[in-house]
Write a structure and sequence with these properties.
Radius of gyration: 21 Å
CATH topology of one domain: Aconitase, domain 3
Shape: globular
Number of helices: 16
CATH superfamily of one domain: Aconitase, domain 3
Distance between the termini: 49 Å
CATH architecture of one domain: 2-Layer Sandwich
Amino acid sequence: MGNNLTLFDKVWESHVVKRVSDGPDILFIDRHLVHEVTSPVAFQGMKERNIKVLFPARTFATADHNTPTINQHLPVKDAMSANQLKTLEKNTEEHDISYWGLGHKKNGIVHVIGPENGITLPGATIVCGDSHTSTHGAFGAIAFGIGTSEVEMVLSTQCVMQMKPKKMRINIDGSLKKGVTPKDVALFIISNLSTSGATGCFVEYSGDVFSNMSMEGRMTVCNLSIEMGARGGMIAPDQKTYEFLKEKEFAPKGGKWKKAMEYWSTLYSDENAIFDVEYVFKAESIEPMITYGTNPGMAIGLSKKIPKSAQGGENSHTKSLTYMGFNDGESMVGKKIDFVFLGSCTNGRAEDFSAFAKVVKGHQKSKNVTAWLVPGSHFVAKEIRKNGVAKTIEKAGFEIREPGCSACLAMNDDKVPPGKYAISTSNRNFEGRQGPGSRTLLASPIMVAAAAITGKITDPRKYID
């Protein structure tokens, strides 16, 4: 390989098993993550063809999408959910795959447990039958979501056929202002590029802003890459990455760690690396963001008013505002909120709960607000108990639920009722995403916390030092 390669090129090329002339590449997959919703048909296909999983040790399974977030020790009431969970347990047992089901100490959202157990590593290829697999790109991995037929392909061959995406770089230098979080950075980028602005590309994030971010923050940004149409997003590994992974269960140990570090230290874009598209933004131009419409690109800074026309044309803009019950030219500040959701693979980590706690400390939950605070894993739940964050949150009148995807996609009982407004740290605000007829506003953990104590959209900077 030459010296004008991007980080993406280096990882991709080292995993190509075979090239199909004028077609896709056959890509070797290092890690395959599996959950209960997109895997049953894949396992059934393998059963019908009488084939086994090729490398069971490279696949990790968890229950997350439609698990209840209260009373997980009791049998799951919903028949379909119970059946999917039972099916995953049976399939993983049959194929000798690690399965972290309900009640397991390692159970949690698939994109939260990967990094916290060291399954996610720099330079790896990672897939899952879930669109937000891009989260793992925060470690310098190529990670993307796949469909059910591809899940079967990876289980049986440990490879997947993919056209190589184009390469995009987004550079943000400078220092973020007070109260601007990684979630705001991601929503700012999507609002500038639109929900289709990175279609067909794999994005590399570079510059001071991403270097200074914690690993949790980088995961939030990479998680949201697909909301602008990208195939995935990635950030070059650095000292923070290595510190995060050291001593994690599935990370290399001893001599293997040393050898891995030698390889990981080569994972960066060369100085003369060629990208198909590049964008440059200034950190100082980003402020706390909030969505007002029905896609993540319909977002504005708190000081701004809802614009007159937005991407997607006049009709879709009007339709979106009608659904949300908002008008052109209005400010989002002061809008009433009914539900609050802190969690998901976007913002369900210990750092997100700490940020929420800092805002609600010394205050009380608004009486007109229903709050669902859902840790991304049992590890997160344990961590926030240990460091006192949970105590601060509970003292402010909030209840912390059990891990799962929860209200992010409302596959379980955590559904926002029709017409009600939810401010959410999750990744999508499509019509009915959090329950039929629900209206979702996407925001950062601190913005959600401020709304939780005031009952309306409030500038979170009033509550942080």
